[in-house]
Amino acid sequence: MKGIQEFDVRRRTWLKNSAIAATAGIAAVEILPGTAAQASGIGHEGKSTAKAHAGGIPVEKLEHIRPKLLPPPFVMEHEQATRAAPRVVEFTMTIEEKEVVIDEENGTTLQAMTFNGSMPGPTMVVHEGDYLQLTLINPATNTQQHNIDFHASTGALGGGELTHVNPGEQVTLRFKATRAGTFVYHCAPPNMVPWHVVSGMSGAVMVLPRDGLKDENGRPLRYDRVYTVGEFDLYIPKDENGNYKKYGTALEGYGDMTAVMNGLIPTHVVFNGKVGALTGANAMKAKVGETVLIIHSSANRDTRPHMIGGHGDYVWELGKFSNPPALNLETWFIRGGSAGAALYTFRQPGIYAYLNHNLIEAFNLGAAGHFKVEGKWDDDLMKQISAPGPIRA
């Protein structure tokens, strides 16, 4: 209990210092507790105590690779299974604070905080036993301190204690991917976690088993395409006339936005940062006969993905690939603070609606996207026997 109380005091102290610093126009600096130094591998004699190994090879001697991250819904190139020895997979992400339009129909905007400029941030893919190494950059043009909490990692608040960066700073963190599955990452600055998360700062990591995905009987599963969907609950303040307000900076709208957040009723629930981000020309594409892997993350609220006209052939609701997948689901459940995965082989062409099956959030608040599938129609699966016409006597 004492540790929890001390942590809370540190958070409140940081918030107080942040407010003072923001008022003075300078960046706030948090002094990290002693556990951060221990977690960084510094022992009593000031030397590194880290002795990480992968297959008997010191981590310092492992091969380094630097794959290119892609903006969602797309996912970086990767091997679905690998025979390679564990590697250090290096990524770089830059934090962008910027205004984004979340509803083009009425011009509603959000002063967003993002990883690499997208909502969600890019999906990083490694294999179990690999090391994920991230350099996180907070440009001097930003106004806020940021960090990153990897749900896939072990220790130091998911790396959050070791990655606080003020504007004009960068930090590099490495952790070993010890569990296979899909995981959320998000920004987690002390006492401001909810605000940063619902302002856009979350994404997903996929840690694949080294021998690839398997069905409930241990048979290999493969996919032809992979997409990542990040679901966001947004809280945009309104003025006295009921119009959504605009702000010059994120900090300017902090008080108003926090008041809406505390009501626990989002004004928008969207996929990939805005209403319609995955519809129309932006629909996710596939062909009949192709198998698609869908990674669905939700850093804050529970959600219920459903594909109208399709199913989840194999679904890891909990997102952990060491568990056997559930079969043939109509709707699956993603807990807030997690990422799940589903495989589906498309059998018919056309438009499929992929949505949160809280239908109010899907149709009224924006939590919906489309798959556009090309191919030949199969009358055996579905056929219109007679077209609509007058009721016959």
Description:
With about 400 residues, this protein is mainly β. Helix content is about 15%, strand content about 30%. Strands 13-12-15-19-17-18 form a six-stranded mixed β-sheet. Strands 3, 4, 5, 7 and 9 form a five-stranded mixed β-sheet that branches.
- Looking at this structure, what is the CATH superfamily of the domain at 225-374? Cupredoxins -  blue copper proteins
Number of helices, counting only DSSP H or I runs of 4 residues or more: 5
Give the CATH architecture of the domain at 225-374: Sandwich
The radius of gyration is 23 Å
Order of helices and strands: HHEEEEEEEEEEHEEHEEEEEEEEHE
Report on the biggest sheet: 6 strands, mixed
Structural class from helices and strands? mainly beta
Shape: flat
Average pLDDT for all residues: 89
User: Strand-residue fraction?
Assistant: 25-35%
| Percentage of residues assigned to helices | 10-25%
Distance between the termini: 76 Å
CATH topology type of the domain at 225-374: Immunoglobulin-like
Unreliable parts: 1-53
The CATH class designation of the domain at 225-374 is: Mainly Beta
The main sheet orders its strands as 13-12-15-19-17-18
E-strand count:
21
